[in-house]
Amino acid sequence: MTDAAAAERVAAAFADSFGQQSEGVWAAPGRVNVIGEHTDYNGGFVLPVALPHTIRAAVARRDDGLLVLASAQHLGARAEVAVADLEPGRPEGWAGYPAGVVHALAGRVPGGLSILVDGDVPSGAGLSSSAALSCSVALAVRDLLDLDLDADALIDVARRAENDFVGAPTGALDQSASVLCTAGHALFLDTRDGTREQVPLDLAAAGLALLVIDTGTTHDHAEGGYRDRRRECERAAERLGVDLLREIEDVAALDPLADGSDEGDVLLRRARHVVTEDARVLQVVATLRGDADPRVIGPVLTAGHESLRDDFEISVPLVDACVEAALAAGAHGARMVGGGFGGSVVALIEAGAADDITGAVTERFAREQHRAPRTFVVIPSAGARRLA
Ligand code: GLA
Description:
This protein is α+β, with helices and mostly antiparallel strands and 388 residues long. The chain has ten helices and 13 strands. The strands form three sheets. A six-stranded mixed β-sheet has the order 5-4-6-3-1-13, with helices on both faces. Helix 2 crosses helix 3, helix 2 packs across helix 4 and helix 6 crosses helix 7. The two termini are 15 Å apart. The relative contact order is 0.17. The mean pLDDT is 96.
């Protein structure tokens, strides 16, 4: 869908729902991370691209102090709360993200807001539909109320909505990708100091493509598992006497963690994932900046998957089966993306191979009694923006 068509659709839904015109429409994309998983809350490196899929928000100011939220995907499920009464955890579900954004801007939202959201970022697929939702609303509120917030402040507002209001202890990868990515580029971001570089990513010129395979599986313990990994990384850093695991560049420096205890072994493996993953991001960025054949990135992605599976232990059998089937069908590399415990796989493939690889994964899933995955080729797209 073009930006213009998307804007028209959400503006029409707003008018239907609220009986008045919206004052503008904003969009923010989901993301897929090329490499750099579970490095963001360790101060490390990430390399996401924005998806063409976005969440759109049509917004208008109100003068009754209420925040009224509606969604084209959840018709009839309107949430209404006084801005002054917003408190973490209420409302719950999808409405918690826009409410969290308004809460994070507390004191800077006089009157109230009517917000209707619409979108096509697959949810529960590890493609950051929640960050797209938070970022579209954060940008809308900033523009509409003319708030003095730069990109970093917007990212922070969206992350606080997730961390403090919804209660998901994420890093800032997803929100940074949604706000900062630009079309035709991957975003090379140093999460410790916010330094960033737009790295041109024209895989088609090399006859290649990035294929996203949404396995259609999510697990209840995803949030608990994420929280545990985050704590383990913090504990490993503490034992090693550093603030962030990012400060360690050499896996040999992790040896002191191996004290013969089971816990020491777990912390060593968690930290080894983070240290080797940071190195993989640097390796992929160096390849993309130079004139080497980008096919050499493939094995680096697969090594990232093995590290998430064996050292970080956040993959699941169906995701492993997806990676295996894609590689067996000719993908140059493949790995799980996002928080883990299900979600999507990203594969580096020859440009004409998407149907064959989708077919091979579908066949493998059928053998595992699992429905066909949804797949699409990633076009590195624009970050958050005003549509109308
Ligand atoms: C989720 C979180 C991010 C990041 C990734 C893993 O998407 O929201 O902050 O930690 O997992 O790389």
